[in-house]
Design goal:
The protein is mainly beta. The chain folds into 2 domains: 144 residues, no CATH class; 160 residues, no CATH class. The protein has 3 helices and 28 strands. Strands 12, 13, 14, 15, 16, 17, 18, 19, 20, 21, 22, 23 and 24 form a 13-stranded antiparallel β-sheet that branches. Strands 1, 2, 3, 4, 5, 6, 7, 8, 9, 10 and 11 form an 11-stranded antiparallel β-sheet that branches. A hairpin with a 4-residue loop joins β27 and β28. The longest helix is centred in the N-terminal third of the chain and has 15 residues.
Amino acid sequence: MKKFLLSLATLMVAVAAVAAPTADEVSALSLRIDKVDGATVRVKNTDGLNAVLYEDGSIILYNFEGNSPLRVYINEDGTVYAPAQAIMGYDEDTYETIYYLTVPAASKDKTPMEAYNDRITGTYENGKITLDAWNAIKTNSSFSENQGTLYNNDVTTMVVAPNATVTASYWVDDYDWDTWDFLGWTKGEMTTSDKNAYAEQDGKYITVYNYDDVNGAVKFEMGRGNSLTADPDFITFKRISSSGNQTDYTLKAIPAELTEEEVTPLDEPVGGEVVDEYHISFGNCGQFSESGSYNGSLLSFITITLDKALDLSVTGINSVESDKQVAGVKYVNLMGVESATPFQGVNIVVTTFTDGTSKAVKQLVK
């Protein structure tokens, strides 16, 4: 009986073990997503983060916070821990060096010496590192004082490999540079970014991170008839300064034609479309603060191509499009030029149906 129980225990441990990531899998982890208060997010630019696997099995996330790295360890059961680590920043007003110690959120009120042996915990699953709530204690050069925290709110962090490609066109404002007179808005060229976004599906909800030029995020609800509706309360971007001040931005719809220099968002949610199981599209939107100022650029059209197929069975989307009748098809190249026939190279194929809906997919013509 003892042998049986011992064998069963050994089997359970074996089943619970998680395969250690390879060097290639680790190097693909180039996108950091911070969450605060659940839906609130901040996405770190992919240009800086660099993950490297070391011989001892640890992973160093270089440029995790500013220029400072964070070392994490993955256990056989998929749990993760990161020992307290010193990071450095600078005061934006005085340009003096600021010292911090990364700690779990529960330890943020301790002195750095008391918190030094505490570990940030987390998990590694499906190629994604998740760190539980953490913060950083601001301190002096001797790490003897607790002078507050780096962030006003505790942060949970995901480090992932991008799994989506973004093709987008932005509204471009034109000026007479001699007189600075505003000349109007035009829809800019279609541009394709290379695997810089991360998308995840939770039932009928799709969340996409880092879809635009200011590392924003959007949460859509899939509906019948291929529809997508953005969650108007989902904070797409939280700008946090080194002094702790923050500005929340949310994705808001803008008019399909822009006539005024100051763009006023519409009082309606951003809409989009599930083109097929690998593509979603939306447009005419931007990130706005409560005061009405917008952050970054304004999108006129965007298509997100996913590496992994969506599960469309949750809303019955699959059965809808087959009943539609096509009214017309046009092709748009990366310069924004439209044609009734395909261009050589990358095309955005826009299909319009007789019920007034449309869909857009990216197509390569050789």
